[in-house]
Amino acid sequence: MSVDYVLFGGLALVTILSALGMLFSRNAVYSALYLIFNFSTIAVLYLMLSAPFIALAQITVYAGAIMVLFLFVIMLLGAEQRGQAVRTWWMQPLALGLAGILIFEAIYLIFTHRTSFPPLRQAVGDLGNPLQIGEQLFSNYLLAFEAVALLLLVAVIGAIFLSRGRKLR
Amino acid sequence: MSEYLPLVVLFILSTLVAAIAVALGHLFGPRRPTERKLQPYESGMTPFGPGTRRMPVRFYLVAVLFILFDIEVVFFIPWAVVYRKLGLFGFVEMLLFAGILEIAFVYAWKKGALEWE
Amino acid sequence: MDWASLAEWTLKSFALIFALLGGFAYLTLFERKLIARFQVRIGPNRAGPFGLLQPVADGIKLIFKEELIPAQADKIIFILAPIITVVPALVIMAVVPFGPPIQLFGRTISLQIIDLNVGVLYIMAIASVSVYGIVLAGWSSNNKYATLGGIRSSAQMISYELALGLAFTGPVLLTSSLSLAEIVEAQRHIWFVLYQPVGAFIFWISTLAEVNRAPFDMPEAEQELTAGYHTEYSGMKFALFFMAEYIKMIAVSAIAVTLFFGGYRGPFVDQVPLLGPIYFLLKVVGFLFLMVWVRATLPRIRYDRLMAFGWKVLFSLALGNAMLTALGVLLADMFQNSLWLWSIPVTTIAFFLLVAYLMRGSIAGGNR
Question: What pTM was computed for the model?
Fold first, then answer.
């Protein structure tokens, strides 16, 4: 146990609280703000695990790009004020059940695989160096890298198809 | 973590400076609100309709396309760092990657998704 | 963690923040004076000699102004939005080196807040977050012009961010590093603008759009939007938006200088380290002058053309520039001869002319 773990715990608490804030906000714009904050704290967690590249990519793509889309969609629909949501009887039990399984899984993994608490840096290694990310990407994960391009192509076609109103050719 | 502490210090101080600036205005500015003053400003016309209303779907399309091409740009960065080690192989790989996305770009262009009406 | 380092970081952070605040104050005067000269006027000259105390007078006036919060506004976000706008502007320069390391009190002090090995990505990340202040300011005002202005300018910012991100790849390809200190060091003999003329051009255009400067100042299109996202803001909160815009002007100029114009490098910097910050400042002022000149000269671009230009012309150019730069670097490495690097300006300028030829009329001339 070291200072790192105390910081990690505190930050994890902030992350969870912001996620809860996102869930329980009545105004959709506030939910989006909590989610941006949540993504940023997760980026800081990556930084603590000495993965600066992933941390900053997280901020650029999630906090910077995807949340802009969320805010646009909220404003697009004028959906800030929560109307009467459609509720189905099985939604809450199902969500609670899934959450329970997830928590159990996490606790099980912690207590079976972690007997000691090494410094965080040792636990993770030097994964976040941009040079290593690049080398891994262009050797072991080459297929995945090219598959990303195809996936993005499909996504572009899908997005254009869905938003095709009257006017697009 | 410790190597990022200077950044943490800068973030905290910047937020403080910004918050103090807002607080200064609150402390020293007079406050004489009237009903008219607190209405939305529409160049002197009497405001009508709700303040926030639905936005055109164009903005949504721009944001989606931005995410997809932003991911492409983020992949360019680690590639550029290791490029001199990879040589010809890296060039061909990126040509393939960017080529596939170029198809997406041309598709978006031809479908008129980049036009603004 | 030792206290001496903490003191050093705090002092350096304060130095950066106050340099930016002072820079903001005098940049407004610089701009007003210059614009006045362009329009054959004299400009502010009453407060102090040559109007030098004008920014102080403006600041005091703004503090004592009445502030309004519209009755229908979302009060929390309305107050938070200016802060969310200013903080990214203040922290984006953390990775930019202002000069070579200097010796002071027996410590080696680097003139940089932090030398991240992912510095370029840090700049991209902070730039992408700086959209929120504007969207939120527009939305929370509950004013239709403000909301539309906020969404418009954020759509503009994200569109130009793509070309901006791709413009970074040029210097990174040439140095194989994301650290700005190393990028400056690699420009010891030759500025990257010579290898990357088109890249520097793309970078500069897209930063103009990124900081909402003329001719891309959509949020301030007063004929269409009264005043855009800050219509409802007054007093200090309005001043903060103003401040963010001007600090971002300084920041993007500093980043452009670092990436393409040798940063603090110049003659005799190795012998006299203190010359570094002076060169840096002079280069930044040169860029700021260019920005003011553009504002004085060019009319505002219509919104549909602005978006079409960003997506069609600038993004294609940036992609072509990145790939052609990669080709030049590849040739130089394969033939072990750095003369091949000079193929980059040749091919990219040829590509630039080709794109300009193909696009003629489709952006500026015709309707679409």
Answer: 0.89
